[in-house]
Amino acid sequence: MNQVNRLPRGGRVDRSHPLNFTFNGKQYVGCVGDTLASALLANGVDVVNRSFKYSRPRGIVAAGAEEPNAVVQLGASEAAQVPNVRATQQALYEGLTARSTNGWPNVQRDLMGMVGKLGGTFMPPGFYYKTFMAPASLWMTYEKYIRKSAGLGRSPTEPDPDSYEHINQHCDVLIIGAGPAGLAAAITAARSGARVILCDEQEEMGGSLLDSRELIDGAPAVQWSDRVLDELNAMGNVTLLPRTTANGYHDHNFVTLHERRTEHLADSAPSFGSRRQARSRMHRIRAKQVVLATGAHERPLVYANNDVPGNLLAGAVSTYVRRYGVVPGQKLVLSATNDHAYRAALDWHEAGREVVAIADARANPKGDLVDKAQSLGIRIIAQSAVIEAKGADRVSGARVAKIEIESFKVVGGVEELACDTIASSGGYSPVIHLSSHTGTRPTWRDDILGFVPGEVKGLTPAGGARGVYPLGDTIRDGAEAGAQATQAAGIDAGAMALPQITARQDGQACALYQVPHLKPAMRAPKQFVDLQNDVTAAGIELATREGFESIEHVKRYTAMGFGTDQGKLGNINGMAIAARCLNRSIPEVGTTVFRPNYTPVTFGAIVGRHCRELFDPERYTALHQWHVEHGAEFEDVGQWKRPWYFPRTVNGKKETMHEAVARECLAVRERVGILDASTLGKIDIQGPDAREFLGRVYTNKWAKLAPGRVRYGLMCKDDGMLMDDGTTSCLGENHFLMTTTTGGAAGVMEWLELWHQTEWPELDVYFTSVTDHWATMTVTGPDARKLLAEVTDIDLDKDQFKFMDWREGTVAGVPARVFRISFTGELAYEINVQANYAMHVWTTLFEHGEKYDLTPYGTETMHVLRAEKGLIIVGQDTDGSVTPEDLGMQWAIGYDKPYSWIGKRALSRPDTRRTDRKQFVGLKPKDPNVVLEEGAQIVFDPNQSIPMSMVGHVTSSYYSPTLGHGFALAVVKGGHERMGETVYLPMVDGKVHEAEIVSPVFLDPKGERQNV
Amino acid sequence: MFHIYCPYCEEHREEEEFHPKGQAHIQRPEDPEACSDETWGDYLFFRDNPRGVHHELWVHAVGCRKFFNITRHTVSYEILETYKMGEQPSVTAKSLSEKDKQAGVQAASGGWQTVGARPESDALNKGARV
């Protein structure tokens, strides 16, 4: 065991259970209870990464979520790769394998480091944009190399073997954070009987109590937290969620909690028997009340070379010593602005290592901890700070000088102290992130030198999260917040008996962010503000000099706070520096808004089970199984799976789509085909005013449609643009059946309800969606009548059952409605039967259809057949900017209807009356072998210089096996008046196609085939 | 994600069950043919975008399928009130404007359609415009 920095005793790690792990290919040993960070520090690993921009060596700075440097790539196998893991939050397990995310060829010997050293001084903010700006076309090339040398990890190239879950939960009080305030809030709420959820992001609950020096009721603080946790654990109304980060606070107290269930055990979720555990759970919580007990993050001081490994947060030093039994060095210099930071020196000293000095920025430090340090003989240098760290891969010394904060100057001589660790503390920033996720601005408080949460309904901040720091006060504040939240949730809460804590006397902290240097910031060694994005104090100065005054602009120019740590350490320091440069106060400069997620969340947890076959619901028709068995290729239409075409195998070779579609088209035109049209939207409309309602929502007339008749209708929005079409049949005087496009079904249903409920509630009419109740089979082709006659009792005589009639009867022995409507231009019957009879009817039709060579066809053939007839598909040939007149469908517009139907008034607006509107036409390519590209732009003059005047585009285009040439539907400016004219379609490859504007009806313009 | 009280179902449900349908209280002119192009254009295309109180039309799409109105604060996203179709809001920009000023929020004109509205709404419209 070579854990050079591991103390022989103390801390909450189990030294009797060593764990082997690998970092950057090297084997190490840690203990149960370690984080990856504490284990690396125990093993004396200084450099854990290279910095993002300058490739400077970086070490561990913090002990929690705020860590900016120790971001690692985790995973032993390719499938288990996880980028972006903070070593400070990753529990150690046997066999853990991690790598640095930056550094090439490796972190110790980094090539870009040389560039960083040489180029460092010449790489101000905006460097990449300024340097690689021209020529713009080369940016893609530069970027590839820049990306290679930077970045924060990579995603796995193999599928993730793990599964993730979502859980919806409700509770009375959700408490975020299980430190002293959170525990006090939880126990207060829980004892009242409220439903409580308590979550905490760390491996162990207890927060700051886990490394506290203080006594509660005369015993170590952690004993109190253990007692409280035991009590909470035993209560049925409490859910404890350790290893669970509240990553997002959303509207109306909707909070997402990311619970990591197995990431402390292995890099992939272990199995119990045949069952693999869910790797993580996303709890979607709707809480009546939320208590924000997220504590505070310590701020580092900004001094020269403050990024050299060995520079740590003072509090992190205490955490490593007291909680993990690791002293991350031999000789410590502490630079502090407050009493609480003195803990680092005391803990270091008690661990038996040397504290060289404490540089305190205050002129006259006073307080219990200061006294204690003095009594231990630790040297305290007042009114001073570490102005510069010495060393390259590890701190070798600290330059300490007397400073004057008001004038921002070094006022005394510089003393260089030999040391290998510098701990700094510039005060504490409440962890307010969640409170600002919904847009609430935090408030600056001068007395605590930090932002506290703004007022958010249903959210009560407590303890450190609102700047209450002394332990006793924190517990009282938590208990009060818990009681307040419980009351607000409508439950009576009693007061908690507060434990006995001897209040520590602390001196007033002073406000210091950036430490002055002998040289101005621009010339001094780099003073890092945001370690993850390599933003320096000089960079922020430069930004303000270049005219960026808003902190949001400074942030975007320098990239401060844009890292995966969201500037948890650096943002306040950055604002303070901007404020100093602009001669304003911090609240005047303002703060930036934090957004979800608080710490990075793996995509798996966000997706949960909504992936692969469960990504989106799939809808099947009643005939789906038949289609599958008959080799159909499927097309997604909305959520429906529709047969696209039915390829046959001819002479051992499977047909291509083109071959199958040609065969299916000819079968329909020459014999008979059948289509599963069940996905068409169907709305049953009933009521005395049903007819009047139809007249208002459709453009055409419905007053005289008799029972037994069917009519095609166009539906517009009130702007006159077509939104849907379909047929509606009169089933009885007060009863109609409307059909809609497959994709438009739900939207049309809502549209009808909208108008009925908001504009015409006086109309007595009711709508019911019956899409799934009826299966629809279209039998179409010259032999359709002969085939149907074999299986129905309905009189199919052409004079009795005319085109656009419907009849009720039986088909294959089951009750059916048969509609004589045609979307192919051929004789056609749409057979509707109750969905659960569909398979019987379908197979019966095939039994009888064999002699007619009954051919199933899919949506592609349907498209070709309807396009040959110039029949539109809403959403393909229209796009929300097309009126019925643009389509040449004046015949379907009832201008003289008494009620001003939806869309009518808009059709007389100047814009809809323009004669150069894009109008619906057919296009016949001059070359019969050409099939134009759908979406191709149309021009009148092929020789016009670029940019050419585009006058329309192709909306549908196919090869017609019936016509023997390609053909297209299109919209062209003024197209109706341009019949016979030639237009041009310049293609990406330089070719220019020629086409003639023709009628969109390519086949049987008189409709003789469907009227037989 | 909003937590919305459906005034018909009389309970709070998750936003996923609802669809937003834009600004509320926009009435189709009684006689469209008598409208000028400008008035009709206003009715079709012009909507308020207040910073503050906004009355919105929503539908409980996968619940009771009823349309209803929500009064929502566009800064805090707080839902101040929900009410049935045909009812008038009790919380308006005017009723909240003093409170808004105190909170440093710019008082909004409120989500009231003035052009193309029926005459009986005029008084309400005027009242809402502070």
UniProtKB/TrEMBL annotation, chain A:
Domain FAD/NAD(P)-binding: 172-437
Keywords: Aminotransferase, Oxidoreductase, Transferase
InterPro entries registered for this protein in UniProt: 2Fe-2S-bd_N, FAD/NAD-bd_sf, FAD/NAD-binding_dom, GcvT/YgfZ/DmdA, GcvT/YgfZ_C, GcvT_C, GCVT_N, Sarcosine_oxidase_asu
Protein name per Swiss-Prot or TrEMBL: Sarcosine oxidase subunit alpha family protein
The GCVT N-terminal domain, residue ranges: 623-897
Tree of life domain: Bacteria
Disulfide bond found in the keyword field: no
Leader peptide range in chain numbering: none
Domain Aminomethyltransferase C-terminal: 918-1004
Sequence ranges assigned to domain SoxA A3 in this UniProt record: 525-606
Coiled-coil ranges from the UniProt annotation: none
Pfam families: Fer2_4, GCV_T, GCV_T_C, Pyr_redox_2, SO_alpha_A3
Automatic annotation (TrEMBL), chain B:
UniProt region (Disordered), positions on chain: 93-130
Domain of life: Bacteria
InterPro entries: SoxD, SoxD_sf
NCBIfam families, alphabetized: soxD
Protein name stated in the entry: Sarcosine oxidase subunit delta
